[in-house]
């Protein structure tokens, strides 16, 4: 019945409010880009309002997505502060706002705009807001003030894995409006390719800043030091850039891994599939259940037919183990991580079977088209409940 009403009323006008957007590379940015692109394919009008990072055209259209980029005056805990954001949100015509945490500024003003305009607010809660030192004190203050406003105003809260209801103490009170919708992957873009592979190559991809230390690169470097003793020609390709790049280089040097680690910096979108295909194994040793939302890069690697190693906190961990698409290790266990890496590198036939299993899993369960249809249903139900447009 809801579907019929929405078709009769025409396409929905959806306002997405991530703090940043494509071509910025990150889990939330990729999530919003892929979801928005699929929603456009479903016939909806999608506008993204975000900070102008990286600097580019302030108003443009990418894959049918209308983008409005706003100047910002700086960052607080990885969140761009764009002073014009509240005014732009109130100027926009929309049926629904879809906002995202853990970046408060955009989520807070989205909640206020939705309240003023009497429109539904959907929140994708990617992970908790945490930090270290002063940043952690700021995060705690927000979690007991602004976060409550956003969670209470949200008509539906989307999480990408069910474990988040257990690991996040902030969601327990709102369980009745939480819906689990995993992330997806573009299986046409991320696919197996015939590329030159030198063998015994690992790949790690993340932003190399303090906010993303939870991705576990330090533990991977420790594990690599052990792996090197049995596989001297092992090579780790590290993709990404950030203020911790020099520190990671120093750690590699102190471990005697200069010849075994290559930091390639930012990888352009049109090159990323090649990097996945050139590796023998993709590794994501995330260590924080509060900060790791899903681990989208694991899906991308699996779609490319690569075996993967992750930790028990990533969203695809259960399916990965059940399908035999890779190995799940404990968080912060450098020894166990090294053993898992050696097992895959030293068993090429098994590695091939893992890669094939991962590709099948992605095709069967993690398409962005299917995820967008599930999100679309959430939108339709909320708009119809609030009386349409």
Fold and architecture overview:
- There is one protein chain.
- The protein is an alpha/beta fold and 389 residues long.
- The protein has two domains: 2-184 and 367-385, Glycogen Phosphorylase B (Rossmann fold, 3-Layer(aba) Sandwich); 201-365, Glycogen Phosphorylase B (Rossmann fold), CATH 3.40.50.2000.
- The protein is built from 15 helices and 16 strands.
- The chain has helices spanning 2-9, 27-41, 85-91, 104-117, 134-143, 146-153, 164-167, 217-230, 245-254, 272-278, 296-303, 317-323, 334-345, 348-365, 368-385, and strands at residues 13-17, 45-51, 59-62, 65-70, 75-76, 79-80, 96-101, 121-125, 156-159, 178-180, 201-205, 235-239, 261-265, 281-284, 308-311, 326-329.
- The strands form three sheets. Strands 3-4-2-1-7-8-9-10 form an eight-stranded mixed beta sheet, with helices on both faces. Strands 13-12-11-14-15-16 form a six-stranded parallel beta sheet, sandwiched between helices. A two-stranded antiparallel ribbon has the order 5-6.
- Strand 15 (308-311), helix 12 (317-323) and strand 16 form a beta-alpha-beta unit.
- Helix 1 crosses helix 15 and helix 11 crosses helix 14.
- The longest helix is centred in the last third of the chain and has 18 residues, at 348-365.
- The chain is globular.
- Residues 1-9 have low confidence and may be disordered.
């Amino acid at each position: 019945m809801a579907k019929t009403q929405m078709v009769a009323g025409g396409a929905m006008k959806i306002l997405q409010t991530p703090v940043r957007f494509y071509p910025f590379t990150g889990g939330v940015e990729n999530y919003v880009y892929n979801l928005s692109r699929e929603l456009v394919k479903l016939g909806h009008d999608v506008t993204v309002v975000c900070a102008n990072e990286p600097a580019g055209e302030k108003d443009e259209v990418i894959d049918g997505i209308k983008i409005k980029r706003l100047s910002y005056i700086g960052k607080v805990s990885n969140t761009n502060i764009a002073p014009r954001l509240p005014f732009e949100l109130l100027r926009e015509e929309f049926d629904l706002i879809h906002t995202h945490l853990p970046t408060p500024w955009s989520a807070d003003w989205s909640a206020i705009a939705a309240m003023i305009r009497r429109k539904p607010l959907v929140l994708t809660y990617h992970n908790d807001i945490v930090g270290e030192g002063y940043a952690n004190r700021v995060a705690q203050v927000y979690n007991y003030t602004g976060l409550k406003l956003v969670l209470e105003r949200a008509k539906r809260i989307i999480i990408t894995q069910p474990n988040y209801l257990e690991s996040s103490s902030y969601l327990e009170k709102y369980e009745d409006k939480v819906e689990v919708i995993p992330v997806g992957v573009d299986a046409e873009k991320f696919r197996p390719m015939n590329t030159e592979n030198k063998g015994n190559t690992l790949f790690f991809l993340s932003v190399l800043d303090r906010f993303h230390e939870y991705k576990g690169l330090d533990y991977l470097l420790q594990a690599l030091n052990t792996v090197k003793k049995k596989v001297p020609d092992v090579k780790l390709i590290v993709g990404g850039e950030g203020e911790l790049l020099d520190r990671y280089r120093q750690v590699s040097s102190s471990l005697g891994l200069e010849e075994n680690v290559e930091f390639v910096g930012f990888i352009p979108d049109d090159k990323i599939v090649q990097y996945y295909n050139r590796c023998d194994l993709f590794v994501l040793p995330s260590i924080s259940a509060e900060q790791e939302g899903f681990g989208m890069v694991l899906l991308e690697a699996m779609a490319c037919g690569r075996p993967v190693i992750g930790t028990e906190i990533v969203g695809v961990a259960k399916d990965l183990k059940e399908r035999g698409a890779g190995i799940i290790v404990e968080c912060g266990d450098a020894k166990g991580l090294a053993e898992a890496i050696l097992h895959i590198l030293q068993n090429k036939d098994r590695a091939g079977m893992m890669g094939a299993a991962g590709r099948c899993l992605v095709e069967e369960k993690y398409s962005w088209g299917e995820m967008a249809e599930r999100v679309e249903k959430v939108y339709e139900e909320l708009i119809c409940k609030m009386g349409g447009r």
